[in-house]
Every structure is written in structure tokens, then in C-alpha cells.
């Protein structure tokens, strides 16, 4: 209501920065303003208020209002053209959210992942750039490894903790024969993945199921959708004691359940690995994104769980050189036992 | 089983964290005279466009603005600008065209590849040659358009002249 009043008065006056300055903090100086000048203005405001990535945030907001994804990709002519009062108002509004430390992706309501544009909405976890590399690795293994495309298509993929649907939808779009079962504990994530699947017209090849992987008694519900070729996940992997150190952008707006991995950050990881053998085909793979301290911890844990028949086959670094991704493979059925002995297999006891 | 034996580095991009070197943005490139320096890889083949001189990853230094902090889930950064430097020539490319670090890395390499080509091959570089060809095609189109216009004008004049019968009022 107040905003509508400010808008109305500002529009009729057609001038910025006069009598209503107390209603519109931080507005740029009066006069004709170009995109470049407005970016500089808000960069200075953000810097003064200690907002991280002051310039980048300002650039993304202005670019978004001008209809582009990045400032650099704007037609150069638009950098110097005066902005309309409406555009300035939009920028002001979006910038006020940034002053509240809202992540840019939530401010814009959308973000890109692996070339796909996805809707973003708090508190659903925002896909991180590292995770694009997880998808690249999966794609490499699918194309070079054993054939996963059969008469009915493939590969069949299970994603645990789908969030906005980033991983599932990017795999679906790059592997036209694949099918995905995407699960998440959070209702908002289920809704958002649905929405993104429809936006990208991939809804026919994905099923999205509310599911909590830490509830061992619910594992049986997933079995009808197996066996799968791949299990992929970017599970919550932050060490619980590190949660409080996170930036306000994360703490105030993203679901902590999507981040907190428990004492050693391993709670969800170990549940996924314990579940995997029941859902994977022979020689099926698990691909995980983890904390850099996890490759060793996961290696040891798997050795302590020989019944799982899972082996850590490779660790891959992210673009900053940190060990970030794990490839774990199921080594096939036990000697003498049938492949699909689902009903007879007991879930492995999981620590904690 | 030691984990070091399990590390597998992804080919072919090197993973270099923030390298402390001074940033130089070279917009104006010194053009060497044709015939000097590098060999151009000419892939004759079926394509009309010969291949650009390919970049050796070992000669590149890359910097991501996101090198700081724990990374992964613990960080939410949106700055995915890639700065790529070709060490032998000193050419630097800064790319923030897309929201993806990976895309920006690929684009930066493509832009750098063209700039390196211009640097070493001057007028013979692919970029310059394509520019000349495009300009040539444009001039030819202009010439044809002009000729067509003149023909039409001539035809019109002839038609108008044939309409005019002696004795009637007419404009010249």
C-alpha cells in the first residue's frame, strides 16, 4: 500500500529525489540516468552497507530490469540510454531486497543452471555453480561407460534431494532417452521442481515424489521405481557446527534442512549410500557432491559396510581444486543370489 | 587405501585457483606482420572455415572471481566472471556473458582463441579475413542495388517518353 502511494506520487511528479526522499531511501540523484550510472550508484550503496558482491548484485538487478541475464550481455547501446522512471522504480525495489541480504537468485526469482533457466523461490535451495560440474561428470560417464540406453530408453536415474530440480532437469534435457525419479523431503521443493519441469516441458519424463531418505521404514516405497542405473545427489553436507558461520544470505533465506548434514556432515550421505544397493542395477553408480573432507570419510565408511558392495572409484575436484565429487559403484550381486531379490533384502543398519 | 590414489583430474581444463598476477586488460592488440611466428593449423577438410590456432591449456592461466570461501553449499556467490590469460602473448580476456562459470570459461576460450589468431596472424587471421569478405559482399550488394535502380529509372523515362504525343501539354 505504501509502495503504491510512493509509486503514484513519484510517477505524477516525474522527479526523483525531491519532497519524498524520506520515503525512498538511497534513491539515485535526479536527472537522466543511464544503466551504467545506476549500477555505480547502487554498487556504492551496497558497499556502504556492507553487502557482499556489491557490483555484481547491482549489475544483475539492472540487467534483469532491462531484460538481460548479465550486464555484459546487454546491447552496448543500452548501457548509456536513460532509464525510464518505471525501470528506476523496479531497480529501487529489487535493490531494497538486496539490502536485506536476500540472495540475488531469489530477488530475480530465476537463475540459470547448465544453460536452463529455472524459477527460484525461498526457501528452496539455490543450485550452486559447482553442481554444474557434477552434472557434466555424470554425462561423461553415461556417454563413455557401459550402455545404459536399452529398448525402453535410459538411463534411469534417481535424484535424492532435488530442490529446484536443477540436477534432474539438466540431465533430462541432455539425455533425451533418460527418465528420472526425483525425491525431496521438502514440500516447497516438490512444488518448485514440478513447476520447473513444466516450464521446461520435461514433465513427461520425471516423477517427483515427497520422500525422506533418512526414514528407513519408507525406503520400500521407492523400490517399485527401481532398479536404476544412477543415483545422483547434492545432499546436505555441511557440518552442523559450521551452520552458524554461514552468510546471512544463506541463513536467513535458504532451508537449513537442505544444508545441515549433521555432526560430520554425513547423515544424509550415509543414508543414500545404504539405500543405493537396493535400488541400483549391477554396476550401477552413485554420484555425489560433498564437502572436501568427505572423500576420506566416505571411503572409510564404505569399507566398514562391506554388505553394501559399494566402492569409491573416483574423486573429482571442482573448479577451485577442492575434492568435491564422488563416483561410487555397486560391484554387482553377491555370488549365487539373484539380482532382483528386493523383498528378501533387509536394509543395512545405518550409524546414528 | 589412500585417497590420493583415487584422485582423478578432469581433462583437459586445468583447475587453477586465484593466481596472484597483475590483471591487464588488453583491448588493443599489437598486430605482427604476416609471416612471423606461429604455425597456423590449417584443417582443409570439408569445412570452408579453416580451424583456428588451438590453444594449449598449459599456456593459459585462469582466474575465477569465486575462488574464496569454503565453496559449495556453504557459499552463495553470483560472481562467475572468468579471467583468462594467454601467457605467451599476454592477451587477457574477461568474460561475464552468462551466469554460468562453465559457459563463461568456454566463451572466454573462444574469444581468446580469436584474439590469439589475430595477434599471431594479423591480416591473415580468420577474424580479419572474414571481415574483409563480409565487407566485399556488402559492397557487391550495394553495387547491384545501384545498378538495378538505374535500370528502373531508365525504363521509366523511356516509358514516359513513349507516352508523350507531340502537341500535347507535357512537362520536361
Automatic annotation (TrEMBL), chain A:
Domain Methyltransferase small: 157-245
Taxonomic superkingdom: Eukaryota
One Gene Ontology molecular-function label: nucleic acid binding
Enzyme nomenclature, EC number: 2.1.1.297
Pfam families per UniProt: MTS (PF05175), PrmC_N (PF17827)
Renumbered residue ranges of the record's region Disordered: 330-352
InterPro entries (UniProt xref): DNA_methylase_N6_adenine_CS, HemK-like, N5-glutamine_MTase, PrmC_N, SAM-dependent_MTases_sf, Small_mtfrase_dom
GO BP term, example: methylation
UniProt keyword list: Methyltransferase, S-adenosyl-L-methionine, Transferase
Substrates-to-products reaction catalysed: L-glutaminyl-[peptide chain release factor] + S-adenosyl-L-methionine = N(5)-methyl-L-glutaminyl-[peptide chain release factor] + S-adenosyl-L-homocysteine + H(+)
Release factor glutamine methyltransferase N-terminal domain boundaries: 39-109
A Gene Ontology term for the protein's cellular component: mitochondrion
PANTHER family hit by this protein: HEMK METHYLTRANSFERASE, MTRF1L RELEASE FACTOR GLUTAMINE METHYLTRANSFERASE
Stated name of the protein: peptide chain release factor N(5)-glutamine methyltransferase
Annotated source species: Odocoileus virginianus
UniProtKB/TrEMBL annotation, chain B:
Source species, domain of life: Eukaryota
The keyword Disulfide bond appears for this protein: no
InterPro entries cross-referenced by the UniProt entry: Mito_Transl_Release_Factor, Pep_chain_release_fac_I, Pep_chain_release_fac_I_sf
Keywords assigned: Coiled coil, Methylation, Mitochondrion, Protein biosynthesis, Transit peptide
Single GO molecular function: translation release factor activity
A GO CC term attached to the entry: mitochondrion
Domain Prokaryotic-type class I peptide chain release factors: 53-147
Subunit structure, as described in the record: Interacts (via C-terminus) with MTRES1 (via S4 domain). Associates with mitoribosomal S39 large subunit, peptidyl tRNA and nascent chain.
PANTHER family per UniProt: MITOCHONDRIAL TRANSLATION RELEASE FACTOR IN RESCUE, PROBABLE PEPTIDE CHAIN RELEASE FACTOR C12ORF65
Protein name: Mitochondrial translation release factor in rescue
Amino acid at each position: 500500500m505504501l509502495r503504491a502511494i510512493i509509486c503514484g506520487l513519484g510517477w505524477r511528479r516525474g522527479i526523483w529525489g525531491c519532497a519524498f526522499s524520506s520515503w525512498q531511501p538511497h534513491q539515485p540523484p535526479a536527472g537522466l540516468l543511464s544503466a551504467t550510472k545506476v549500477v555505480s550508484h547502487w554498487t556504492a550503496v551496497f558497499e556502504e552497507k556492507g553487502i557482499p558482491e556489491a557490483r555484481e548484485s547491482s549489475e544483475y538487478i539492472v540487467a534483469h530490469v532491462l531484460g538481460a541475464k548479465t550486464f555484459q550481455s546487454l546491447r552496448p547501446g543500452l548501457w548509456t540510454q536513460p532509464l525510464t522512471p518505471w525501470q528506476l522504480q523496479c531497480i529501487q525495489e529489487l535493490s531494497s531486497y538486496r539490502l536485506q541480504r536476500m540472495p540475488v537468485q531469489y530477488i530475480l526469482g530465476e537463475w540459470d543452471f547448465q544453460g536452463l533457466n529455472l524459477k527460484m523461490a525461498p526457501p528452496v535451495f539455490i543450485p550452486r555453480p559447482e553442481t554444474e560440474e557434477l552434472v557434466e561428470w555424470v554425462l561423461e560417464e553415461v556417454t563413455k561407460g557401459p550402455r545404459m540406453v536399452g529398448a525402453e530408453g535410459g538411463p534411469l536415474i534417481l535424484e535424492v534431494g532435488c530442490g529446484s530440480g536443477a540436477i534432474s532437469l539438466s540431465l533430462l534435457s541432455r539425455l533425451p532417452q533418460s527418465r528420472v525419479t526425483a525425491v525431496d523431503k521438502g514440500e516447497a521443493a516438490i512444488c518448485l521442481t514440478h513447476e520447473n519441469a513444466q516450464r521446461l516441458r520435461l514433465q513427461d519424463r520425471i516423477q517427483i515424489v515427497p520422500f525422506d531418505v533418512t526414514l528407513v521404514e519408507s525406503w520400500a516405497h521407492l523400490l517399485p521405481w527401481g532398479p536404476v542405473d544412477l543415483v545422483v545427489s547434492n545432499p546436505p553436507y555441511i557440518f552442523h557446527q559450521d551452520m552458524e558461520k554461514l552468510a546471512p544470505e544463506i541463513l536467513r533465506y535458504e532451508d537449513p534442512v537442505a544444508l545441515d548434514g549433521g555432526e560430520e556432515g554425513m547423515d544424509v550421505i550415509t543414508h543414500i549410500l545404504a539405500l543405493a544397493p537396493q535400488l541400483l542395477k549391477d554396476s550401477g553408480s552413485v554420484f555425489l557432491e560433498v564437502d572436501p573432507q568427505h572423500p576420506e570419510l566416505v571411503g572409510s565408511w564404505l569399507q566398514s559396510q562391506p554388505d553394501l558392495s559399494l566402492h569409491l572409484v573416483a574423486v573429482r575436484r571442482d573448479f577451485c581444486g577442492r575434492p568435491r565429487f564422488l563416483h561410487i559403484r555397486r560391484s554387482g550381486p553377491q555370488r549365487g543370489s539373484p539380482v532382483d531379490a528386493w523383498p528378501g533384502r533387509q536394509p543395512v543398519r545405518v550409524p546414528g | 587405501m589412500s585417497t590420493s590414489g583415487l584422485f582423478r583430474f578432469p581433462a583437459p581444463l586445468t583447475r587453477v585457483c586465484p593466481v596472484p598476477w597483475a590483471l591487464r586488460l588488453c583491448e588493443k592488440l599489437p598486430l605482427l606482420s604476416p609471416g612471423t611466428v606461429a604455425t597456423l593449423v590449417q584443417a582443409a577438410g570439408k569445412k570452408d572455415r579453416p580451424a583456428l590456432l588451438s590453444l594449449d591449456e598449459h599456456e593459459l592461466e585462469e582466474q575465477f572471481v569465486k575462488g574464496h570461501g569454503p565453496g559449495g553449499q556453504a557459499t552463495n556467490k553470483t560472481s562467475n566472471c572468468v579471467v583468462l590469460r594467454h601467457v605467451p602473448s599476454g592477451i587477457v580476456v574477461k568474460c561475464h556473458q552468462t551466469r554460468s562459470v562453465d559457459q563463461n570459461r568456454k566463451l572466454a576460450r573462444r574469444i581468446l582463441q580469436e584474439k590469439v589468431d589475430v595477434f599471431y596472424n594479423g591480416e591473415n587471421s580468420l577474424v580479419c579475413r572474414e571481415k574483409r569478405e563480409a565487407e566485399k559482399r556488402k559492397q557487391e550488394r550495394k553495387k547491384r542495388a545501384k545498378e538495378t535502380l538505374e535500370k528502373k529509372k531508365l525504363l521509366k523515362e523511356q516509358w514516359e517518353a513513349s507516352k508523350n504525343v507531340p502537341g500535347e501539354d507535357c512537362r520536361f
